[in-house]
Amino acid sequence: MEKPYAIGIDIGGTNTVFGVVDKRGHIIGKNAIKTSLYPEANDYADYLAKSLDEIINTVGGKQYIKGIGIGAPNGNYFSGCIELPPNLPWKGVIPMAQMLTDRLNLPVSLTNDANAAAIGEMTYGAARGMKDFIVITLGTGVGGGIVANGQLIYGHDGFAGELGHITIHKNGRTCGCGRKGCLETYASATGVARTAREFLTERADTSVLRDLENITSENVYNAAIAGDALAQEVFAYTGQILGEAFANFIAFSSPEAIILFGGLTKAGALIMNPVKESMENNVMNIYKGKTKLLVSELKESDAAILGASALGWEIKEF
Amino acid sequence: MEKPYAIGIDIGGTNTVFGVVDKRGHIIGKNAIKTSLYPEANDYADYLAKSLDEIINTVGGKQYIKGIGIGAPNGNYFSGCIELPPNLPWKGVIPMAQMLTDRLNLPVSLTNDANAAAIGEMTYGAARGMKDFIVITLGTGVGGGIVANGQLIYGHDGFAGELGHITIHKNGRTCGCGRKGCLETYASATGVARTAREFLTERADTSVLRDLENITSENVYNAAIAGDALAQEVFAYTGQILGEAFANFIAFSSPEAIILFGGLTKAGALIMNPVKESMENNVMNIYKGKTKLLVSELKESDAAILGASALGWEIKEF
Lengths: 318, 318
Description:
Two copies of one chain form a homodimer. By secondary structure, chain A is of the alpha/beta class.
């Protein structure tokens, strides 16, 4: 019998979402657990395996599952390990593919979460038919999935596309990776909140954000659409920096499109307009007006599940 | 009869070098003309065609030539045009492949000079056997040729790899491309001379460079090996900036090696040591100690000729 389903898992700094996917890219069932509740990787793997078992049983059992694909920050396609993840609760090198194989007796393949999103966009989303594009994930962190000549770029060690850790400002904000000035410290959801706090400290103008204890990117978004000038400037600043970074990415791989994916894209024109303007202002003449700036056409969690599940179909055994 | 030779042409801002190459990568004969002497692209093409005819006759005539490959700044593989080149005497879009076909009645293919160098390194040089590497050309300008998954990255429009125009310092030095702070304004031969002039203006310490009218990168090199502290610091500064840029390139495509090519590599340890130190200091932990920093194993002009000639073998007609 040909096995009709694959499983896609997206491991994020806050949540882990997973689903059973059929060959046509329909998500048959999905669920989520809190990544941040498990400081020990073994406890996490135990609970994730248990949750996967439940969802596997809803489609009739393991005999119907071809394989499992995982998208995770710092996920290494070649080794099946999550290596030195700055935004996950675990330290060191976590052999997550092997850990799930041990628990579920199913083959597991693993890659970077942004690479998984890129595969999802290419197969089911905004990048259908494109051979050269970049997916940028704007969530708790910032990630990149780069496709050139129709192939995902893994690099010699499986770690290509760490676009959240391109240095934007020398001696800029301290990053979870231990360095300074990474794109992620400005353009992630946490980076947006950080910009808001900086603006409030440095400036004296009124803002509804001044009344809040802990500012989140959602607070900044809500304030901005309600007309708060400072909150709007936070998005303008974030978009300016993203556009500058994109101008450099374009000089590197000259993609047909840069596709934005993740929570921050919910801010719509508030973020997209300044990104577009900054990108066009900063690219070399030969690139002007040529690179499409798109938002993912897939539902936020689905793209990562679908992309990861695509790995599940063409599995290698570890 | 199978045609035994291809021609490789490297168009640089100062010189154009070209040669007849056999299938095993031996350069049978070569010659050069001064690019900068021809403000009109048509005059240049006339003279280049005449010079090519001479070298073609030395191997028995056109019937022995399979095709011509050209490496040129801003050369577009897809269109065969040199488009808006900042460091060449000509403005606009120059259909150089067609111009040579018209004059010589031979098929011509064209790409970026740095892409041609990358093909040369992959076929005959330091990148033999590698599937993921970057060649950086350090000459009048700075260029990049990026290979991932064993393939050259051209991008959707043929203009990938413009690594000399990655922005290094926002609002930094004015670049020939019309923007500011490009890597090329610091790390090219002219960038090195510019750094020396800046240091001499800003500082008061003695240096043999103070006695010179027009400082070139060769002057800086000669002063540095003679022990001139200021000249040595010019190379340290240049290496620091290159290493910072390479740390970002590594986050992008995670190459097995970065291969330096061109005039500036003659400075040897003076430039390579600070580049290596800066690169290792600036990369993310997951990349530390993994990327080889190499110098081209091909003779300076040969790599570009060989790389361009490789295009000549697998020609498409325009």
